[in-house]
Amino acid sequence: MSAKQIVYLNGDFLPIEEARVPVLDRGFIFGDGVYEVVPVYGGRPFRWAQHLARLERSLAKVGIANPLDTAGWTTLVDMLVARHPWPDQFVYMQVTRGVARRDHAFPKGVAPTVFAMTSEFPPVAPALLASGVSAISLPDERWLHCDIKSTSLLGNVMARQKAVEAGAAECVMFRDGFLTEGSASNIWVVRKGTVFGPPRDNLVLEGIRYGLMAELCERAGLPMELRRIVHAEVLAADELLLTSATKEVLAITELDGKPVGSGKPGPIWNRLHEAYQQARTA
């Protein structure tokens, strides 16, 4: 972190220590808002158009008018990134419904709160790439609008904490016997050379990695299929993968204390990891 980490809040760039939000902001009271996390490689936001499109979708689904147009968001992020010395960063953007008297119903005539910050994006440790990570299985007990990238993340927080307490890096969640996702990642199953993922619906956050994974699979010459995946298929996977903005593509090499496949990152992960490195520099 630089000596002065600068954030954006409602039109101003200021040191993070000076940023203040009223206690009646609905993001604080209700978790009433949405967010995005955008990787920045070499000073350039990665898959920027796709992140903006998902932000727009999330805002529309919760009934918050987008406070900025494409040019406005682009300028905001470019200015924020330029204020920090790191070549690779990840930008967090958040929009809440704004400040109003505490009442569950949407207030009228309230301006959204717009906040953004950026942090250094260190590369995934080579040792972690070489070993993969462990995960545990959990029932998916979150709400039924996981396609909205909402700041209401208590369900995800609880799931991640259970993984931490079990000594694991992530959880693999199931709803009614079908794979959904991790607490902060999309989960992929590899079987006989094909990459499988859950379908795009309200039960999973359609990570930017969905579209990216399709491109990576094409680049690597791998078939990909989205469909319902039962618990037994996950247990029988040749490889398990997770993808996220900050973890990129990682192999899950242990699930519930048992090795996945050979217990090491497999050949499909290796091909997708190489394809990702090519995509981020393209």
Overview of the structural elements:
There is one protein chain. By secondary structure, the chain is α+β, with helices and mostly antiparallel strands. The protein folds into two domains: 6-120, 2-Layer Sandwich (D-amino Acid Aminotransferase, Chain A, domain 1), CATH 3.30.470.10; 126-281, D-amino Acid Aminotransferase, subunit A, domain 2 (D-amino Acid Aminotransferase, Chain A, domain 2), CATH 3.20.10.10. Helices cover 29% and strands 28% of the residues. The protein contains eight helices and 15 strands. The protein is globular. It starts with 5 loop residues before the first strand and ends with a helix.
Write the layout of secondary structure elements.
Elements: E1 6-9, E2 12-15, H1 26-29, E3 33-41, E4 44-45, H2 48-62, H3 70-82, E5 89-96, E6 113-120, H4 126-131, E7 133-139, H5 154-165, E8 170-175, E9 178-179, E10 186-191, E11 194-197, H6 208-220, E12 224-226, H7 231-235, E13 239-244, E14 248-255, E15 258-259, H8 267-281
Parallel strand pairs: 7-8, 7-14, 11-12
Antiparallel strand pairs: 1-2, 1-6, 3-4, 3-5, 5-6, 8-9, 10-11, 10-13, 13-14, 14-15
